[in-house]
């Protein structure tokens, strides 16, 4: 499969190419045996290198998706899971996982039925031991007798013998490369100093894993090779570190064994609780498969996303970003909620991905991409506003260095005063608004209150006094001036005198601007750019093109993604903003967000849009305004009521911005699950909780009824605790 030169190929043709089944493994061996982080080369431009795959299809090797400028579904083989087909020739498959004790056959059967009735096309069940494996036979038979042929997936950790048994009755086996062969559950840190030590363990894994491969091949059972960022093996960590590259190689080690035995009925997954890590890992996986001609389908998911809107937002950022790149063939939205409730957001995301692929949304004609590097994360940062000597008010806080939130408001809202201030996230002291940690940085007005609207004008003055920016279209200001406002102009209006009262300028873009127009923006003194994508354009792709043009022009103006929605409900707003804007923020392009809604759903309030915007920034690892929770979705291994305990912990610790708490039903994936958290609350045994600081367990066997208070004390001991503020009663 030697790469063939294609017209227009770039400097990438000089890069090393592994043998078909070598990939990362070969390059790691050449790099030496000590732990290291390998600096990846910059992403190549549009022109790519191609190689012939095993089916005689010419496939690109220098990228991770078919087209960075357009949503085109990545071509894959078809994997058969019972009566369900996974792959690019089929609709995106929706799945979930039960939370019942697998040994309780009746309860598990009832839960699978609820999930299937809600729209789940596959259901995963945890199978941790022989008792559970035996119960699986009865679960499968009972479901079939009731007329349910929904494919069942066995979730396997540490138990190769159990996997062999359940492969006799289930349709698919999920194996975790980080712990499949580690029956001791020791989670040891081992330094592999020589290639011989590394290869010796690979040989042991092959010996343990091969019987399952042969069993699945014989019975037509599918498999998911599912890497988890929190549970990479000591061998992988020693060679690759805790990196997306390590995640990919961990999966490839198992895939090579499958391929050695001509078994190809499997899919890959690269899950992490951090959407940025998750997106980078899947992109790198797809990139590496392109290079060696593999075409296995992808199962997408953000693990331990949490519950409610936060969990849905994290999942939308990670899953949605990949779907809009044409990646993903089956998805699961992992929520700390009842399993059947996962299907609604899962369906919305699947529909988003299928629609984008069907319409091939994007920038027609394409564009050259030289700035964005999908293999490493770099955030573009704009220059914050500076104060001028003749300014009547302070403009330095109209944007925030870690990510800004703008809120569109009406004059009617302005006139309500106290309720309005609260909807912006401001504290109140004797009726006066004060900035809080999650107060909107600026507001957008579509009209200026008349001189007779005293309350509305007073609200504007009070906001300006605390540094909140007031953005108004220049056309409005020409007829109704507003002192110390920020005039929102079009590209064609740059250079014209600012309308009366305006002290600063912002520019609105629609994604269709030319290079010359972007140069004009770069040369202006605009304090921010609002990208309000034209209805005919794809936000993700047109904004990528703008990012390219802005980089070429040397533009340092902050970019605010102006998401305008004329219809939809709360879930639509979370899914769409997470996918479209989050898909840009995970690439480091964007300094803030403005979600504007003009639909009729009364549940979509200004407060909801503000908190959703802050949730989008936090989910994209930008601005932390509340406690971050990494909570698993529960399964049959869970040693306590996860939903109830998570709610209790959130109620008592939800006021700690910058603190991340992991709430885990068990430690099946290892202490690496705590990699993205400061503190961990983990089920250690029935009725007993272990507490972690980072990846280190510091307190073991705490009675569950005492564990929440013990967690609070642990946070205090580490100087991360603050008392809740009591808001003053407004006059």
From TrEMBL:
Pathway linked to the protein: Isoprenoid biosynthesis; isopentenyl diphosphate biosynthesis via DXP pathway; isopentenyl diphosphate from 1-deoxy-D-xylulose 5-phosphate: step 5/6
Annotated GO CC locations: chloroplast
Pfam families, A to Z: GcpE, GcpE_C
Coiled-coil intervals: none
GO biological process: isopentenyl diphosphate biosynthetic process, methylerythritol 4-phosphate pathway; terpenoid biosynthetic process
InterPro entries, sorted: Dihydropteroate_synth-like_sf, IspG_atypical, IspG_bac-typ, IspG_C, IspG_TIM, NO2/SO3_Rdtase_4Fe4S_sf
Keywords: 4Fe-4S, Iron, Iron-sulfur, Isoprene biosynthesis, Metal-binding, Oxidoreductase
SUPFAM superfamilies: Nitrite and sulphite reductase 4Fe-4S domain-like
Catalytic activity: (2E)-4-hydroxy-3-methylbut-2-enyl diphosphate + 2 oxidized [2Fe-2S]-[ferredoxin] + H2O = 2-C-methyl-D-erythritol 2,4-cyclic diphosphate + 2 reduced [2Fe-2S]-[ferredoxin] + H(+)
Cofactor: [4Fe-4S] cluster
Location of the IspG C-terminal domain: 628-716
HAMAP family tied to this protein: IspG
Family: Belongs to the IspG family.
Protein name in the entry: 4-hydroxy-3-methylbut-2-en-1-yl diphosphate synthase (ferredoxin), chloroplastic
Organism name: Ostreococcus mediterraneus
């Amino acid at each position: 499969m030697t790469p063939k030169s294609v017209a227009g190929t770039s400097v990438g043709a000089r890069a090393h190419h592994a043998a078909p089944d070598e990939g990362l493994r070969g390059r790691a061996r050449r790099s030496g045996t000590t732990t290291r982080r390998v600096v990846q080369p910059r992403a190549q431009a549009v022109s790519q290198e191609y190689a012939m795959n095993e089916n005689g299809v010419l496939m690109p090797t220098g990228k991770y998706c078919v087209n960075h400028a357009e949503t085109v579904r990545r071509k894959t083989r078809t994997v058969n899971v019972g009566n369900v087909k996974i792959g690019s020739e089929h609709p995106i498959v929706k799945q979930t996982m039960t939370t019942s004790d697998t040994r309780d056959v009746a309860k598990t059967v009832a839960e699978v039925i609820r999930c299937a009735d809600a729209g789940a096309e596959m259901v995963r069940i945890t199978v941790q031991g022989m008792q559970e494996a035996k119960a699986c036979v009865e679960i499968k038979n009972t479901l079939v007798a009731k007329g349910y042929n929904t494919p069942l997936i066995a979730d396997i950790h540490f138990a190769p013998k159990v996997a062999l048994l359940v492969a006799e009755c289930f349709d698919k086996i999920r194996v975790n490369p980080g712990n499949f062969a580690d029956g001791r559950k020791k989670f040891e840190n081992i330094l592999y100093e020589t290639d011989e030590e590394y290869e010796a363990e690979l040989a042991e894994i092959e010996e343990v894993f091969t019987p399952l491969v042969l069993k699945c091949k014989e019975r037509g059972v599918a498999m998911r090779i599912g890497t988890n960022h929190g549970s990479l093996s000591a061998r992988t960590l020693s060679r690759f570190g805790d990196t997306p590259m390590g995640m990919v190689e961990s999966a490839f080690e198992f895939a090579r064994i499958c391929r050695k035995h001509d078994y190809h009925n499997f899919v890959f997954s690269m899950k992490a609780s951090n959407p940025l890590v998750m997106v980078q890992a899947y992109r790198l996986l797809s990139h590496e498969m392109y290079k060696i001609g593999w075409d296995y389908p992808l199962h997408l998911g953000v693990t331990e996303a949490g519950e409610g809107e936060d969990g849905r937002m994290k999942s939308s950022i990670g899953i949605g970003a990949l779907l809009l790149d044409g990646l993903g063939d089956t998805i699961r939205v992992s929520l700390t909620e009842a399993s059947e409730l996962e299907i609604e957001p899962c369906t919305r995301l699947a529909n988003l991905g299928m629609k984008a692929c069907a319409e091939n949304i994007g920038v027609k004609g394409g564009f050259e991409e030289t700035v964005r590097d999908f293999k490493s994360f770099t955030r573009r940062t704009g220059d914050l506003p500076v104060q001028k000597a003749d300014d009547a008010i302070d403009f330095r806080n109209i944007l925030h260095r870690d990510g800004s939130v703008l809120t569109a408001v009406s004059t009617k809202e302005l006139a309500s005063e106290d309720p309005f201030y609260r909807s912006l996230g401001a504290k109140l002291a004797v009726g006066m608004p004060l900035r809080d940690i999650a107060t909107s940085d600026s507001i957008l007005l579509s009209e200026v209150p008349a001189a007779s609207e005293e309350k509305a004008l007073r609200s504007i003055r009070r906001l300006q006094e605390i540094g909140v920016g007031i953005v108004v279209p220049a056309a409005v200001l020409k007829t109704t001036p507003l002192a110390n406002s920020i005039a929102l102009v079009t590209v064609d209006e740059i250079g014209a005198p600012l309308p009366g009262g305006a002290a600063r300028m912002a520019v609105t873009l629609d994604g269709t601007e030319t290079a010359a127009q972007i140069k004009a923006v770069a040369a202006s003194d605009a304090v921010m750019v609002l990208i309000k994508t034209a209805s005919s354009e794809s936000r993700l792709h047109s904004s990528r093109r703008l990012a390219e043009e802005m980089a070429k022009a040397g533009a340092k103006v902050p970019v605010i993604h102006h998401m305008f929605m004329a219809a939809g409900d709360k879930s639509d707003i979370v899914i769409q903003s997470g996918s479209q804007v989050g898909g840009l923020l995970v690439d480091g392009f964007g300094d803030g967000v403005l979600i504007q809604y003009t639909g009729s759903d009364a549940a979509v309030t200004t407060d909801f849009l503000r908190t959703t915007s802050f949730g989008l920034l936090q989910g994209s690892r930008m601005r932390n305004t509340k406690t971050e929770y990494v909570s698993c979705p529960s399964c049959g291994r869970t040693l306590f009521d996860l939903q109830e305990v998570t709610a209790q912990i959130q109620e008592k610790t939800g006021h700690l911005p910058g603190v991340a708490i992991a709430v885990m039903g068990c430690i099946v994936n290892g202490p690496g699950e705590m990699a993205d958290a400061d503190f961990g609350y983990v089920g250690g045994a029935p009725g007993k909780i272990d507490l972690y600081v980072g990846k280190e367990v510091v307190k073991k066997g705490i009675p569950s009824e005492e564990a929440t208070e013990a967690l609070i004390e642990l946070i205090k001991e580490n100087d991360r605790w603050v008392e809740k503020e009591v808001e003053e009663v407004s006059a």
